[in-house]
Amino acid sequence: MGSLFAIIAFLSWGIGDYLIQKTTRRFGDWLSLFYITASAAIILLPFVYKDVPSLFSLGSLGELRILILASIVSAVAALCLFEALRRGKIAVIDPIFAFEIVVTGFLAHFFLKEILSNFQIILIGVLVFGIILISIKSFSHFKNFKFESGVVFAILATLAMGGENFLNGLGARVTNPLMINWFVSLFVALITFLYLLYSGQFKFIIQDIKKRPALISWVCFTDNLGWIVYSFSMVYIPMALATGISEGYIALAVVLGLTLNKEKIKPHQIVGLIITVTTAMLLAFTS
Length: 287
What we know:
Layout: H1 2-27, H2 29-48, H3 61-87, H4 90-96, H5 100-112, H6 118-135, E1 136-138, E2 146-147, H7 151-174, H8 177-199, H9 204-211, H10 213-236, H11 239-246, H12 249-260, H13 267-285
Antiparallel strand pairs: 1-2
């Protein structure tokens, strides 16, 4: 069951990342993030409202701290991810996200005492090499290599996403998968709501929904479905395995970017793409 949930997550996220790129380029980062998180907060509320009061009891303060920390890290990760996809090619940006396996694995090892084998450590090294290849646009001179647009934000997003994965899995275990997703979505939706009010962008919400209802609906559905089933997968199987299997979304998002967006990447980036995706899958099945 856990593996099935992880597979559904990579299918949902693969399509979701492609749609997030289209959404952020159409509406911007903050509006796109508000649509996704606000929809999840509203839809999940009927399933969790009975458990909300218990979060504020003395015995649940530890759980509440985990949910708040997960929400803060998730907000940072989402904004960096959205900006990376808005600026860069999806075929270049998404493979960098494979590094979140390393970050998640390190946190699981440090806090949950999960141990990596020597073979897994080697795979991580190969994964980093693949990420470097896909991230560099040209090698005219080694000292002055040019990064693809959006790569810096992708790296920041990856570091935050590793923490987000770990805290999401931890939150799903100490509460439940629906609660962690509802709480994080509500928290981030409130932050984005306040920013949209402050920046004067809130007035565009009704206008955007009327103009592009299908795009907004589908990006909300695919991204939120991915997070919900991912949380469920980490309840049934080890955190590292769930994260590894779900990384298949990288390959799907890249294929969509190359075929539908007609994106072009250079030969060394193709090699990096193959290395990154292949190594990520190998790491998943050895977790």
